[in-house]
C-alpha cells in the first residue's frame, strides 16, 4: 500500500504540473504580478486608515481565519474501480489513508501559514498583539485544521451517526472554529491555543477506536471525486480539462432575453449558441466566475493605469475562453444539414460574443467608476480601452483564431 500511494501521488503531481504549466504562462504570471502589486498597494493604503479598537476588525479577522480553516481537503487519490480491486486489501487501507492525511496536512498547513502571514499586518494594526500572541494564533489555526482533516478522515469509515463525528460535521467546520477563534481575538490567545491543542489531540487519539472498522467506499470515492472536480474546475478557467463533464440546466429567468431571437434561417446559429452557452453549466459558470473575480479586483484597486490593465486583461480572458465554443456543434450531424453557410455561423458567434463581452465591460466600467469616480483619466481609459479591445478581439482576432483552429482540426 505504501508503494501504491507513492505511485498515485507521483502521477497526481505530474498531472498537476502539466496543468500548472498551462495556467502560469508568461501572460498570466505578468498579470498576476500586477494584481498582487495592486492588491498589496491597496491593502497598505487601507491599513493606514485603520486604528486599534476598530469595532468590526475582530469580526473580519475571525471570518477570514474561519475561511482559511475550510481550505484544503483530505486527499486520498482513490479511484472508482478501487471499490472492487482494493476491497481484499481493506485491512491495509488504514496505512494508505494515513499517508494521505499526512500529505493533506502539509499542504493545508502551508495554506494556513500563508493566510496568517497576510493577515498579520491587519491583526497588528487593529488589535495590537504581541509577537508571542501572533505565534499562538498560528498554532491555533494549525490545530483546528488538523482536527478538521481528522474528522474528514473518520468520514471514510462506517461509523455510527453520532452527533460528534459524522452526524454533524458542521460542529467541526464551523461551531468549534468560531468559538476558539472568537475567544482568541476577543479574550485570550493562550486559552484558545490550549483548547485547540486539546481538541486536536482528542481527535487524533480517537482514531484508534475507528481506524480498523470497515471503510465506507462510496463516501470515500465520492469525496475524492468531488475534491478533484474542484481542482479541475480551477484549471478549466484557463484551459480545456477532459475530466470536466458538461451538464445542462435550463435558466428560465433568461427566457425573456433569449426569446427575442427571431426564428429565421440566418439566426439558426445565433439561437444555438445563445441557448447552449446560457444552459451549459461549465461555460456559463466560467463566464460568471471570471466576471465576478475581475469585478472584485477592480473594486479593491484604485489608480490610473492598473484598473485599465485589469479590465482589458479580464475581458481578453473571458473572450478567449469562449472561442472553443464555436466548434461545439461540429460533431452534431444534424447541424450540417441546415441550409445555411459558415458565414452565418461566424456572424452569429461574433454577435453572441459581442453581447457577452459588452455586458462584462459595463459591469467593469461601473466598478471602476464607483472606485475611481474622481479620476477622469482612468474612467476614460477604461471606456475607450474596452470599446477598442472588444472591436479588435471580435472582428479581427476571433476570425483568425477560428480559421487556425479549423486547419488544426482538419
UniProtKB/TrEMBL annotation:
It holds the Pfam family EcsB. This is Bacterial ABC transporter protein EcsB. One of its GO terms (cellular component) is membrane. Keywords: Membrane, Transmembrane, Transmembrane helix. The chain crosses the membrane at residues 20-43, 55-79, 100-123, 174-201, 290-318, 352-371, 377-398. The keyword Membrane applies. The keyword Iron does not apply.
Amino acid at each position: 500500500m505504501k508503494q501504491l500511494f507513492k505511485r498515485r501521488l507521483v502521477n497526481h503531481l505530474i498531472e498537476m504540473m502539466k496543468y500548472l504549466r498551462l495556467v502560469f504562462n508568461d501572460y498570466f504570471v505578468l498579470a498576476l504580478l500586477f494584481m498582487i502589486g495592486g492588491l498589496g498597494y491597496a491593502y497598505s493604503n487601507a491599513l493606514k486608515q485603520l486604528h486599534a479598537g476598530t469595532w468590526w476588525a475582530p469580526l473580519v479577522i475571525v471570518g477570514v481565519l474561519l475561511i482559511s480553516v475550510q481550505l484544503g481537503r483530505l486527499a486520498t487519490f482513490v479511484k472508482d474501480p478501487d471499490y472492487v480491486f482494493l476491497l481484499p486489501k481493506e485491512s491495509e487501507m488504514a496505512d494508505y489513508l494515513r499517508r494521505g492525511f499526512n500529505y493533506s496536512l502539509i499542504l493545508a498547513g502551508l495554506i494556513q501559514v500563508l493566510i496568517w502571514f497576510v493577515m498579520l499586518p491587519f491583526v497588528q494594526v487593529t488589535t495590537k498583539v504581541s509577537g508571542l500572541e501572533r505565534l499562538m494564533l498560528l498554532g491555533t489555526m494549525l490545530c483546528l485544521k488538523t482536527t478538521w482533516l481528522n474528522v474528514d478522515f473518520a468520514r471514510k469509515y462506517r461509523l455510527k451517526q453520532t452527533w460528534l463525528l459524522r452526524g454533524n460535521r458542521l460542529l467541526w467546520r464551523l461551531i468549534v472554529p468560531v468559538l476558539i477563534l472568537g475567544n482568541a481575538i476577543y479574550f485570550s490567545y493562550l486559552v484558545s491555543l490550549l483548547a485547540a491543542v486539546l481538541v486536536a489531540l482528542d481527535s487524533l487519539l480517537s482514531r484508534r477506536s475507528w481506524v480498523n472498522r470497515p471503510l465506507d467506499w462510496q463516501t470515500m470515492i465520492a469525496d475524492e471525486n468531488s475534491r478533484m472536480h474542484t481542482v479541475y474546475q480551477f484549471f478549466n478557467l484557463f484551459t480545456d480539462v477532459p475530466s470536466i463533464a458538461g451538464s445542462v440546466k435550463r435558466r428560465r429567468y433568461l427566457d425573456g432575453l433569449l426569446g427575442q431571437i427571431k426564428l429565421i434561417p440566418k439566426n439558426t446559429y445565433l439561437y444555438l449558441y445563445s441557448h447552449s452557452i446560457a444552459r451549459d453549466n461549465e461555460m456559463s459558470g466560467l463566464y460568471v466566475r471570471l466576471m465576478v473575480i475581475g469585478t472584485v479586483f477592480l473594486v479593491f484597486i484604485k489608480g490610473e493605469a492598473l484598473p485599465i490593465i485589469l479590465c482589458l486583461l479580464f475581458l481578453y480572458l473571458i473572450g478567449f475562453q469562449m472561442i472553443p465554443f464555436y466548434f461545439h456543434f461540429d460533431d452534431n450531424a444534424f447541424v450540417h444539414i441546415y441550409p445555411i453557410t459558415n458565414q452565418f455561423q461566424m456572424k452569429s458567434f461574433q454577435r453572441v460574443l459581442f453581447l457577452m463581452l459588452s455586458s462584462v465591460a459595463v459591469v467593469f466600467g461601473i466598478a471602476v467608476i464607483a472606485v475611481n469616480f474622481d479620476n477622469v483619466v482612468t474612467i476614460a481609459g477604461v471606456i475607450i480601452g474596452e470599446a477598442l479591445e472588444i472591436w479588435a478581439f471580435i472582428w479581427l482576432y476571433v476570425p483568425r483564431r477560428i480559421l487556425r483552429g479549423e486547419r488544426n482540426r482538419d
